[in-house]
Design brief:
Structural class: alpha/beta
CATH superfamily of the largest domain: Response regulator
Helix content: 40-55%
Number of domains: 2
CATH class of the largest domain: Alpha Beta
Radius of gyration: 21 Å
Strand content: 15-25%
Length: 393
C-alpha cells in the first residue's frame, strides 16, 4: 500500500487538545488566521502531533480529476492550521492511496482504523464510500468525506459526515432556479448506471423535474468506462428536448458533452451537468460553451476567506483550485473546529462535536450539518463561457 507522511499516534494528551483550542478559530483565509493569539495559559506542546487518516486516489484513473486536487486542498489547510501557532501541537497526515478502486479504498480505511486514527478524511467516489465507510462506522472512527455526494450515504451511521452537498440537497433548488430562468418544458437525461453518484443524481433530477411540471422524454444509460455515446445521443436528439441533463463522472461527462455537440445537438438545447468543473470545461473545449452546472463552490464566491484561499492555492500550486480542493480545504478546518470544541481526541467526542457544527464560516459559506451528517450551505449555479465558469444570473 502506498503511504506518505506515516506517523502513528496511539495516545495524545489533553494538553495537546488544549493547544488545538488555541489555534482553531474557524475557517481561514489570512483574515481569520492572522487573528489567532495564543492564550498565555494554553500549554504549548512542542513536538506533539495528532495524526488524521487521509484516503485519496493518488494513482489510477481518478487521481487527476479527484484525488490530487483533494490532496492539495487538505495539505494547504493543514499547513495554515499548523502555522497559525508556531511551536504548538500540530496535525499530521497518514495518507493511504486508494488506487482508484473499491478494494483499494476499503483496504485504506481498514489500514487507518488499524493505525488507531480518531478520524479519516477523503474518499471522493460515492461508489467507493458506500463500501468502505461501514468499516469506519463499525470501529467507531469518524469518516468525513469532502467530496462524495450521492444522496443518503451519511445514513450509513453516526460516525459518517460529508462536506459536499448531497444530490437531494443540491439538485431540487437548482432545477427550480434554472427552469424558471430558461423555461424548459421537455428534457432528456443520460446517466452512468454503474456509478452510485450518477444514479443518485439522475434520480434526484428526474424527481425534481417532474415536481416542476417538466416532461422527461427519455432517460438513456451507459456504464463507467464507455467511450461511445452516439446511440444514446442520437436517440435524444431525435426527441428534440429543450435541455439535456448529464449525470456522470468527469471522464465520461466531458466525452458526452463533446459527442453531443459533434453529432448535431444544437446549442438551443441546454446541457445541464451537476458538478462540472473548470478543468472539465477546458477539456470539453468549445463544446462546453453555455453548459450549466449545479455545484457546491465557486472561485468567485465572497464567502469568508474564499478569495484568500484562491490566491494562496494559486501561489502554492501554480494552478486554479477545483471544487474538490476547496471542499477538502474546508473539511479539514471543520474537523479541526470539532476537535477544538470537543477538547478531546476521542473519536466519539469528535463525532458529537461535528454533529453540533452550525453556521460555521467556511469558504463554502456558512456551514452546518443536518441530523444525518449531511452538509447544509448555499449551492451555486454556474455557466461555461469562454473556457471559464461564471455565475449564472
Amino acid at each position: 500500500m502506498n503511504r506518505t507522511r506515516i506517523t502513528t499516534v496511539k495516545y495524545v494528551s489533553l494538553a495537546f487538545v488544549l493547544a488545538i483550542v488555541g489555534w482553531v478559530v474557524g475557517l481561514s483565509g489570512c483574515e481569520r488566521i492572522a487573528s489567532v493569539v495564543p492564550d498565555e495559559e494554553t500549554p504549548q506542546m512542542t513536538g506533539e502531533e495528532l495524526s488524521i487518516g487521509v484516503v485519496l486516489d493518488l494513482t489510477g484513473q481518478y487521481a487527476e480529476p479527484y484525488g490530487l486536487p483533494m490532496q492539495r486542498g487538505f495539505e494547504l489547510a493543514r499547513k495554515e492550521i499548523n502555522n497559525a501557532q508556531p511551536g504548538a501541537a500540530s496535525l499530521t497526515f497518514i495518507t493511504v492511496d486508494a488506487q482508484s478502486t473499491v478494494e483499494g479504498t476499503k483496504n485504506a480505511v481498514q489500514q487507518l482504523v488499524d493505525e488507531g486514527v480518531p478520524a479519516i478524511v477523503g474518499v471522493a467516489l460515492s461508489t467507493y464510500l458506500k463500501e468502505a465507510f461501514p468499516i469506519a462506522q463499525e470501529n467507531g472512527v469518524v469518516a468525513f468525506s469532502s467530496v462524495s455526494a450521492a444522496a443518503g450515504l451519511s445514513g450509513i451511521g453516526d460516525f459518517i459526515f460529508r462536506a459536499g452537498l448531497a444530490t437531494d440537497i443540491l439538485i431540487p433548488s437548482s432545477v427550480m432556479a434554472t427552469q424558471q430562468k430558461l423555461g424548459y418544458k421537455k428534457v432528456a437525461a443520460i446517466y452512468d448506471e454503474k456509478d452510485v453518484y450518477a444514479t443518485s443524481s439522475k434520480d434526484e433530477l428526474v424527481s425534481a423535474l417532474e415536481a416542476n411540471g417538466v416532461d422527461v422524454l427519455t432517460v438513456e444509460t451507459f456504464q463507467t468506462g464507455n467511450t461511445d455515446f452516439s446511440t444514446q445521443l442520437t436517440n435524444i436528439m431525435a426527441m428534440e428536448p429543450d435541455a439535456l441533463f448529464i449525470s456522470a463522472l468527469a471522464q465520461e461527462m466531458t466525452e458526452i458533452i463533446v459527442q453531443g455537440r459533434d453529432i448535431g445537438i444544437p446549442d438551443s438545447v441546454h446541457f445541464i451537468v451537476p458538478d462540472l468543473t473548470r478543468d472539465d470545461v477546458q477539456k470539453a473545449g468549445g463544446a462546453a460553451e453555455g453548459v450549466l452546472t449545479f455545484t457546491s463552490w465557486s472561485n468567485m464566491s465572497g464567502a469568508p476567506g474564499n478569495q484568500t484561499f484562491v490566491e494562496n492555492y494559486r501561489a502554492a500550486y501554480g494552478i486554479e483550485p477545483q471544487p474538490w480542493a476547496a471542499q477538502s480545504y474546508a473539511t479539514l478546518y471543520i474537523l479541526a473546529e470539532a476537535i477544538a470544541n470537543a477538547q478531546s481526541t476521542d473519536s466519539t467526542a469528535i463525532r458529537d462535536a461535528l454533529a453540533q457544527i452550525t453556521d460555521f464560516p467556511t469558504i463554502l459559506g456558512n456551514f452546518s450539518f443536518d441530523p444525518n451528517g449531511e452538509a447544509l450551505y448555499n449551492s451555486v449555479v454556474l455557466i461555461a463561457k469562454d473556457g471559464e465558469l461564471q455565475v449564472f444570473e
